[in-house]
Amino acid sequence: MGVRVRGQAPGPGERPAARGILPDLGRTVREPAARHAAAGIILPATIGFILLLLYLTFGSIRLALLVLTNLPFALIGGVASLYISGLYLSVPASVGFIALFGIAVLNGIVLLSYITQLREEGRPLREAVLQGCANRLRPVLMTAVITIFSLVPLLFAQGPGSEIQRPLAVVVVGGLVTSTLLTLLVLPALYERFGSRPERPEGTSPASL
Q1: How far is C-alpha 50 from the chain's CA centre?
Q2: Measured between alpha carbons, how far is residue 74 from residues 35, 119, 173 in Å?
Q3: What are phi and psi of 6, to 5 degrees?
Q4: Are 165 and 154 within 8 A, CB to CB?
Q5: Could you give the CA distance from residue 175 to residue 7 in angstroms, rounded to a whole number?
Q6: Share of the chain above pLDDT 90, in %
Q7: Which of 8, 10, 48, 130 is deepest in the core (most CB within 10 A)?
């Protein structure tokens, strides 16, 4: 393969290049780097925005951070599924992580808001945690199962567009498996350890969380 400088006449046996068409290898190298840089900005910004919304919802930075512990749970499954399937972090995969984070946070809100409601009704901490997990087991599982089954066709997509559909579906499905299990098993234990409001003597004003 020869390299010809722009403006140089074609040599013997060479076909002249079409006018206006020149290879731009620098652009080919720059575009993936720009996409990865954009993904590195979008994901942290999304997490920060989610934290702000959680704080506005609960009025407690402690509960907001507890709900955010779902994100590492989801991240574990998403990254592992990409590795197992032989895919890499791309823009579609980053979009899948954003969607996955939203579903994982929603499951955490569904569980912790109900446990907090039981605590405000005067239930003991252990009883509130156990009853909250039992009563919110079905909604959390149904959210994950319906989402996973709806994305199964994209996992086996072939042909044009599959390079966009498959990474997104792989990330969401793999992340939901781990985040759902750990939401129901680990998050209640973390709430019992760190998220419960401490008991206060009667007659004192409630301390802000």
Answers
A1: 11
A2: 22, 27, 10
A3: -60, 135
A4: yes
A5: 53
A6: 4
A7: 130
Residue 116: phi, psi to the nearest 5?
Answer: -65, -40
Q: How many CB atoms sit inside 10 A of residue 32's CB?
A: 12
Boundaries of every domain in the chain: 36-195
CATH code, 36-195: 1.20.1640.10
3-state secondary structure of 205: coil
DSSP states along 141-200: HHHHHHHHHHHHHHHT--STTHHHHHHHHHHHHHHHHHHHHHHHHHHHHHIIIIISPPP-
Is residue 43 classed as helix, strand or coil in its secondary structure?
helix
DSSP category for residue 25: H
Backbone angles phi, psi at 184, to 5 degrees: -80, -20
Cα–Cα distance measured from residue 168 to residue 32, given in angstroms and rounded to the nearest whole number: 17
pLDDT at 96 over 60: yes
> In which band, very low, low, confident or very high, does the pLDDT at 176 lie, cut at 50, 70 and 90?
very high
97 exposure class (CB count in 10 Å sphere: 0-12, 13-18, 19+): buried
- The pair of structure tokens assigned to 44 is 């942290």
